[in-house]
Amino acid sequence: xxxxxxxxxxxxxxxxxxxxxxxxxxxxxxxxxxxxxxxxxxxxxxxxxxxxxxxxxxxxxxxxxxxxxxxxxxxxxxxxxxxxxxxxxxxxxxxxxxxxxxxxxxxxxxxxxxxxxxxxxxxxxxxxxxxxxxxxxxxxxxxxxxxxxxxxxxxxxxxxxxxxxxxxxxxxxxxxxxxxxxxxxxxxxxxxxxxxxxxxxxxxxxxxxxxxxxxxxxxxxxxxxxxxxxxxxxxxxxxxxxxxxxxxxxxxxxxxxxxxxxxxxxxxxxxxxxxxxxxxxx
Length: 282
Fold this sequence. Notes:
With 282 residues, the protein is mostly beta strands. The protein is 10% helix and 27% strand.
């Protein structure tokens, strides 16, 4: 996902939704230029990421990599509660609330890994946008995985301004949690992967990594990044080790690491976080 994040950013295509292998979009042809790509997720272009070197690969085109990027983003609030913008022909545009309903909101929240929609807010929430207003009306059924899979139609019946921008609050789909602290904004870091909660190894765990956890949980700024099972040892798998975040990622799974369940740690090294605890309220 960290590699996919760089591709999505370089193409101005929003956040990564999935990083795919095994020629998911069909095999390519010609040289396989890069292999064993290692991005932190903050690079401005894929060529700045680590790799085995140009043209050095034991792969064939049945291993070609693919990316799905999001064509929606939320701007101006917390990660899952902000003003909605949609990517239209490489430009981010605002959406008129008169052309947006509950089924559309369900798709947006799902695409951004933010759970279910809670409400669409009025004009005072999250400020007014300055992007061009989109003229299409979205007609999702509500079960689509991405907004670009929804039908659209030209809308002439609504006169919209930035007073009518869609502002959306989603119920965050929790993929990270803090356990054993004095509040939900402090504790041992646990992540949900393959339907099971596990911990994070404290090797190389720092404030940039903690910042991503605090942001993902809407818990303000990082106060401390802790190791050595400060909040007690966890149990189950140790999902992540050698986590390497820049601090700008929207979710911990977008940070670099040694890979899922690939470590030589035990639970006495479990990572912890203390956040400032300032939660975003609407």
